């Protein structure tokens, strides 16, 4: 298959380097991406007006592709806020406090619980919940606040967010950029996530236990119980729902999501269908609880919570949309935005580059895997984790075309590296919420995460090489 590269291919590749360079310098990539789309449009159409139109159209295209993901995250966030404001979240998690008897149990129970909650509600809401309820319990049994922060961070923003098995926001972005089904990315990510999660959390725990035995970590004095109590009573309507009502609703939520999982398995629901099922269930839960908690004001409060959810969703994805718009131009998004102006015989700019790369550069599985880990790490330096994973998917497609296989594994590897670094467990400005909840320095938390995460990435990359 002979592909003749033209100016479009080289400009697209040049702007990929510009975007990576901008991320390395810890600057936002929005302007670079928009200029990239404009230049591609100008070269493809030769029309200034069509190029300007194309910039706007590319954003519309990206929003259309991502709207389902934005909406599910917004709805889940709205639901989590209702649970937090009514105190149902505390009831849901309180049974697990009886298992926390030692510092070791505190680390693993908090971590695993954080992971499970984050899979359904995302780490941001889970962080507030875990900090308010389980931080005082962990401190009482001897686990320092930095240990709680490490557990919450690695299990929530690391394992749960990098896999994103339920909400599927991350695999949606990388799969679209790579041009493969979301289910393929999810399937390929499971063994890599397990390896990364096991190695990282175990290594971090061993380092933590070593420092605790040497007396290097001390529990800070602080009345966490009273703080938690104040937080639980600062909303007057928390007292509207009785304790029994909260318990019944907590059990109902557990049953509903369990039914969702069963339905997903039996009906083989994946991707958008699975996300829609979770979204519909979340809407039902948050509207029911809001009506019960606010009674006569429930109708208005439903709207208020939905507004808060949508604000959160678009805040998270605001930096993602421009970079996704650019990387969609590497595939069939280019045809949708600028009509059918691809070079004759082209199947997409990224595909073309991959074919030429395979014909000219002796790539192998090891080089491809290492490169994807590096690309993912670089894209995570902006502290978002999500804003650059489209780049990881695009590069995975490029390299997989060159080596002839492994696009799903490479895509999953890039996704994992990007989110573990920027989603975040290493970038200090990405872990401020966890650090603030646990009253520790974000720089200290990032420093303690550094070696375990680096070791985890090395081992995961080696596993990926064997899976290709």
TrEMBL record:
It comes from the Bacteria. This is C4-dicarboxylate transporter. Keywords: Membrane, Transmembrane, Transmembrane helix. The chain crosses the membrane at residues 6-24, 31-53, 59-83, 104-122, 185-208, 248-269, 275-294, 306-329, 417-438, 450-467. It comes from Orenia marismortui.
